[in-house]
Write a structure and sequence with these properties.
Elements (H helix, E strand, L loop, with lengths): L2 E5 L5 E2 L2 E2 L3 H10 L4 E4 L7 H10 L9 E2 L1 H11 L4 E5 L12 E2 L9 E4 L8 H13 L4 E4 L5 E4 L2 E4 L1 H12 L4 E2 L5 H11 L5 E5 L2 H10 L3 E5 L17 E3 L5 H8 L1
Parallel strand pairs: 1-4, 1-13, 4-5, 6-7, 6-8, 8-9, 9-12, 13-14, 14-15
Antiparallel strand pairs: 2-3, 10-11
Helix pairs in contact: 4-5
Length: 258
């Protein structure tokens, strides 16, 4: 058997605009009972909100079809028995961490500082507060909900959480635990959810987070020329297993190659 991992933003949609043919492509995989997951680094929407968004684009899904950094982070925190967390994520994502104790005091007993993309909410005050919590709680783990560098919005390219995490690593000397792309463990978690080890394919628009990282995890990878893709990406020494103009071409490619 084979399986497919779909990136969302940049592959199935760009901002709020669907990629032409995306709904039909996913429907083909559903119709042919091919196992698949939606893999995304977004921390601005809950899984329930993502189900609703895809539904508006004509794509059927359930919460169980998504692997997101908050879900992976929750599992990692529970496995390591870390209960007291300082949480810096969008409001819609907080529900994924409802089983934990939220600690806001800089001098509190913080087990982990969990950080997602805050977008336009990022301020010096928030960044300095995170820095102080980490400095005052030397045992606290720095948990990054992904390390995406940037993404494409309706208004152009926008910084993601990765550069912020690098700033905290530099300032504190601490290395982040990454629970989203490009972490190899994130891809391994997806493979585990699918229940298969071979012939798993990742399709994405990010040459590093989607293509390079999935190949390092032992997956095949397909680069699409939508989303954040630029022709210069193909000059970085990273070679996708296939390059498609868009996800609309995926069913045809699949039938020819799998």
């Amino acid at each position: 058997m084979s399986a497919i991992l779909f990136d969302l933003d940049g592959v199935l949609y760009e901002g709020d605009r669907p990629v032409d043919g995306a709904a039909a492509a996913v429907h083909w995989f559903n119709q042919n009972h091919i196992p698949h997951l939606f893999l995304t680094n977004t921390t601005s929407k809950s899984r329930a909100e993502l189900v609703t968004k895809l539904s508006h684009l004509g794509i059927e899904s359930g919460e169980e079809n998504f692997l997101t950094p908050p879900v992976a982070a929750r599992q990692w925190l529970q496995t390591n028995n870390l209960k007291n967390i300082a949480l810096f994520v969008p409001d819609s994502t907080r529900q994924e961490f409802s089983d934990f104790n939220f600690v806001s005091d800089e001098d509190g007993n913080v087990n982990a500082v969990v950080i997602g993309d805050l977008g336009y909410q990022w301020t010096f005050e928030i960044m300095n507060r995170i820095f102080r919590i980490l400095i005052n709680n030397t045992q606290a783990k720095l948990v990054a909900l992904g390390m995406t560098r940037y993404w494409r919005t309706d208004n152009g390219l926008q910084l993601d959480v990765g550069p912020m995490i690098k700033a905290f690593e530099y300032a504190t000397g601490r290395i982040a635990v990454v629970t989203g792309k490009p972490s190899i463990d994130f891809y391994r978690a997806a493979i585990g959810l699918l229940g298969m080890q071979h012939n798993v394919v990742m399709i994405g628009d990010d040459i590093r987070g989607d293509i390079e990282a999935s190949q390092q995890a032992g997956l095949k990878s397909i680069q699409v020329r939508t989303g954040k893709f630029t022709p210069q990406d193909l000059e970085l020494g990273i070679t996708p297993d296939a390059i498609l103009d868009s996800v609309a071409q995926l069913p045809e490619w699949w039938q020819s190659n799998m």
